[in-house]
Amino acid sequence: MTLTLYDTTLRDGSQQEGISLTVGEKLRIVRLLDSLGVNIVEGGWPSANPKDRSFFQRVRELALTCSRISAFGATRKALTHVEDDPQVRALIDAETPVVTIVGKSSLQQVKRVLRVQPEENLGMISDTVRYLADQGRQVVFDAEHFFDGYREDPSYAIETVAAAWKAGCETVTLCDTNGGTLPWDVYAIVVALRGMLPVSFGIHAHNDADMAVANSLAAVRAGADHVQGTINGYGERCGNANLCSLIPALQWKLHAVDLGAKRLETLRRVAESVARIAHQELPSGLPYVGRSAFAHKGGLHVHAMDRWPMSYQHLDPAVVGNRTRVVVSEQSGRTNLKLKLRELGLDAEMTPPRLEKLVGRIKELEEDGYQFEGADASLELLVRRAATDYCAPFHLEGFHVLVRHDTGERMVADASVRIAIGAQLVHTADAGNGPVNALDRAVRKALVPTYPKLADMVLTDYRVRILDGDDGTGARVRVLLTTTDGDTGWTTVGCGTSIVEASWIALADALEYGLWITQPKPDTEVVPAKETACKQRS
């Protein structure tokens, strides 16, 4: 069986709340999907807005190697001639090799939403499909609300599918539009239809009952040879079937597709890239591609993983471009930390007594509010600082922050800092739009002349969590900072009785870690860090 992978991220996926893609962003996603090996990429509604019309003009300029572009539209309007329908004409003008038409397959939808006679709906389907097929287009018919319609009136639902097939449709996609169908029902219905009509069947599943991937796989097992979905499961309401889960399952579990090992290894990169383009955070718990998909925290699991890497993994993460991660927390034992140190390349000189001491220190800090499982950079620094020969590139002697009103009655902050850089003591100050921003600016002002690489490091995420909220404004806070130098990103953690204190600790770690990975041997002479709050964390 030859299976067609059909992506609708640019149309159905962009209907997700909070996602709005520019033409340029859509073109970037097309390139990613083409490199992944997706067969058909649905571009949007050419009749809906100028942005989509511009997309269909510009996408012709792309030299795609695998993907074909599809324009999406609806059946002709009721009681009109198909050649007079402007949105059908827009589909032709889009000049795509594939056209996807959506039409109603539920009798209740026809009566209550379209408010036309059932026979007219059948005519709308057949007229539109035949017209587009006669224009040389490969037509995909999306049978909207098909599974709901099949439960209501199976004979009418089948009539809509038959009308599309007889009119020249190459693929009929059965849509679980409301996302409430269960896998065994999908399987039984697809099997039944395959025995009635000699047409290629597809599946378009929504995730309202958290069944979109399962329903898609059930349809393939029943004989469907066309699967629609979106990258990262984007889509309206609860989203669509997630292609980042479907593709590895189809290749490694069902052996229904073969993108090739090299393409599949880019899956996580594609997922992250599309999330970044769509201005979304990639959920850490996404199967296959999430940061936590192959993360191990429980001591029992990690101990077994040390003996056999597949003891708690269903798939080698490298297959999809991911990796195994060991999480270190208050639940960790020595094995967790040992494997984490091996992962970081820091296990060579870690003796059992040092390992035991480090585990104890981590548990103490986590009891105090720290959380290292999401802050690998701070954990790595914690380990490095435990070495007797570690020298910190700088040390904060003290800081002062003043918040005031400016002449326009806006709140501004002034920060002054004293920082030891090697044998030098630097005292400087700067202003910012808040105490943390002012502190960051003042610290960088002091450090950049010695460490110019710091100028390239920017904050990309800043998260604050209140610990023990019953303590009110006196509660401890945890701050997580994510920083990048343009090539690499890292996360650090700080904890304290104030946001400024916690932010400074996380900021100091972020700058120190950035210096470690980009400039491990500074030009100036450095001295061992003093027993300060920063050093004591180790």
Query: Can you summarize the main beta sheet?
Result: 8 strands, parallel, barrel
Instruction: Round the Cα radius of gyration to an integer and report it.
Output: 29 Å
Estimate the global geometry from the Cα principal axes.
elongated
Output mean pLDDT: 89
- What would you give as the CATH superfamily of the largest domain? Aldolase class I
Question: Which second-level CATH architecture of the largest domain applies?
Answer: Alpha-Beta Barrel
Number of domains: 3
Number of β-strand runs: 16
Q: What is the number of helices?
A: 19
% residues in beta strands: 15-25%
How far the N terminus sits from the C terminus, by CA atoms, comes to 58 Å
Q: Within the CATH hierarchy, at the fold level, what is the topology of the largest domain?
A: TIM Barrel
Helical content (DSSP H or I, runs of 4+): 25-40%
CATH class of the largest domain: Alpha Beta
Low-pLDDT sequence parts: 521-538
The order of strands across the largest sheet is 1-2-3-4-5-6-7-8
Quickly give the structural class: alpha/beta
Structural key phrases:
Double Stranded RNA Binding Domain; disordered C terminus; 38% helix; TIM Barrel; three-stranded antiparallel beta sheet; alpha/beta; 3 domains; eight-stranded parallel beta barrel; 538 residues
Description:
With 538 residues, the protein is an alpha/beta fold. It folds into 3 domains: 4-277, Aldolase class I (TIM Barrel, Alpha-Beta Barrel), CATH 3.20.20.70; 295-367, no CATH class; 395-536, Alpha-isopropylmalate synthase LeuA, regulatory domain (Double Stranded RNA Binding Domain). The chain is 38% helix and 20% strand. An 8-stranded parallel beta barrel has the order 1-2-3-4-5-6-7-8, surrounded by 9 helices. The protein has a 3-stranded antiparallel β-sheet with strand order 11-12-13, covered by helices on one side. A 3-stranded antiparallel β-sheet has the order 14-15-16. Helix 5 (118-134) packs parallel to helix 7. The radius of gyration is 29 Å and the shape is elongated. The termini are far apart. Residues 521-538 have low confidence and may be disordered.
